[in-house]
Write a structure and sequence with these properties.
This protein is mainly alpha-helical. The protein is built from 21 helices and two strands. Helix 16 packs across helix 18.
């Protein structure tokens, strides 16, 4: 009976946290890439017309994001339909913000579920281990607070579709390997499972800028880890023969699931060479690598988000190393080590992805999202392990420590419920105006990254507002 009450309390706590996140998402303004993707602009049309990007290679043609078709397609399809559907229940202007908030919270919930499954080793959301794992990771999803350093769900809905969503898809793809590698649960060999995972590998590699690099680093480390384990367990003489034998011992499923997605990742990276956005902002590779130390320092030290996470991970590691160096404890320490190696390899590869003026130090919360998710995973795994392993007497001091850590993140993620108030007023002004060119009297961005000073620059936005039913005809606008 007590266990059921605790579970209900934790579930309500999780629901409260997610509801709070939803309200925060509902208060975010629209971003300047929405119309560019949804109308779409002439830059985006080649992506939608050529999903696999083959024309870019065959015709030696550069255009925006040739290897990110599924991000552009899913984003466009969702925002051409969701707001119009929601207008059956609410006003057109509200339907846009509601569409953004719904998609963000769904992606956030998917990521929390996948992380909780990876941490607990169970797909049963009714199990106590699952709900504890979800409670541990949920506060680390910062909507405001430490978002500029360890954010996952971006204020910009476009960035959420291009970074958080691809990470969720990738985590889904690799979830069977996490279950086998971490929880010793065998990969499914059923034919329908394999049939589903092959097209999923295409979606993974042609979604977002980060996935191909993550796939290659993860696959390489997973293979090396298997070879190393097999090598140490062999009594065979001769280093070369042992390496060959250790490689042959890798399960056949690994080759089936990792080789296609790795080859597709190489293709995606090659296709990225035809990305006009990267080419137009090209700076020397050496200069980008020189920016890394400053980026690392700035990203991981300026706010409490990462330092607090590093401190609790250090505490967990010390306790496990001294008190619980069992087979399970050693496994967690080993995973932590591989996450460190993954993070190092990943950071060293980041400059190869090209330079962006809005990311002057190469590292930013969006580019290090795989590292952030990995650290959240090991935090949840090590904490859940200790909560199950510590004695009642030891939990008297450990549980309050974890509670304080989660409270720090919860407290930092303060509400900002008026972030889009000015933009909503401007949209209403455009909607109600009888002029074909509307002069805005408030000082805020409207569906843009900056103020619109020339009416003709609002053309794509005006088309989108008309499609969404906010205006009855196309109305250009500009800031006074």
């Amino acid at each position: 009976m007590t266990k059921h009450i605790i579970y209900l309390f934790l579930f309500l706590l999780l629901l409260t946290d997610l509801s709070y996140s939803f309200v925060q998402h509902l208060s975010q303004p629209l971003d300047g890439d929405m119309a560019w993707n949804i109308i779409p602009s002439n830059d985006v049309k080649p992506i939608l017309e050529n999903p696999l990007g083959i024309n870019a290679i065959l015709k030696d043609k550069t255009y925006a994001n040739p290897n990110r078709f599924f991000c552009h397609w899913s984003f466009r399809e969702y925002f051409l339909s969701a707001p119009l559907f929601l207008q059956n229940f609410t006003e057109p202007i509200n339907s846009i913000y509601l569409s953004c908030a719904i998609s963000k919270i769904i992606i956030q919930i998917i990521l929390i579920i996948l992380l909780a499954m990876a941490i607990s080793g169970t797909n049963n959301i009714l199990k106590m281990d699952f709900i504890i794992a979800a409670i541990l990771v949920s506060p680390l999803f910062q909507t405001n607070g430490y978002r500029t350093y360890m954010g996952i769900i971006d204020p910009s809905i476009t960035y959420t579709f291009f970074y958080a969503l691809p990470c969720a898809i990738l985590l889904l793809y690799f979830s069977p390997f996490i279950r086998q590698f971490y929880h010793k649960k065998n990969l499914s060999s059923k034919i329908f499972f394999k049939i589903l995972w092959l097209p999923l590998s295409i979606i993974v590699c042609l979604s977002g800028p980060l996935n191909p690099g993550i796939v290659l680093v993860f696959s390489m480390l997973l293979m090396l880890s298997n070879i190393r384990t097999n090598y140490l367990n062999l009594n065979q003489a001769g280093i070369t023969k042992k390496i060959i034998s250790a490689t042959k011992m890798i399960p056949a499923n690994y080759w089936f699931f990792l080789v296609p997605v790795s080859l597709l990742s190489f293709y995606s990276l090659f296709l990225g060479r035809y990305n006009s956005i990267t080419i137009s902002t090209l700076i020397p590779l050496r200069e980008m690598y020189l920016k890394l130390p400053q980026g690392i320092y700035y990203q991981f030290t300026q706010k409490l988000g990462f330092p607090v996470l590093f401190i609790i991970l250090t505490i967990n590691t010390i306790i496990i190393n001294k008190k619980f160096k069992t087979q399970e404890g050693k496994k967690i320490l080993n995973i932590f080590k591989w996450i460190g190696i993954f993070s190092l390899c990943y950071i060293l590869l980041l400059p190869l992805g090209g330079y962006r003026e809005y990311r002057p130090n190469i590292l930013r919360y969006d580019t290090i999202m795989p590292i952030t998710l990995s650290l959240i995973f090991i935090f949840g795994s090590s904490t859940l392990f200790l909560l199950k392993s510590l004695s009642k007497k030891q939990k008297i001091w450990y549980v309050p420590v974890i509670f304080i850590v989660l409270l720090i993140y919860t407290n930092a993620d303060k509400a900002k419920f008026n972030n889009n108030k000015c933009e909503k007023i401007a949209l209403k002004e455009i909607s109600e105006s009888k002029n074909s060119i509307v002069e805005l009297h408030n000082d805020c961005n409207v569906l843009s990254w900056d103020k619109v000073t020339e009416a003709e620059n609002s053309d794509l936005n005006a088309q989108l507002l008309n499609i969404w039913g906010i205006t009855k005809e196309k109305k250009l606008y500009y800031n006074k």
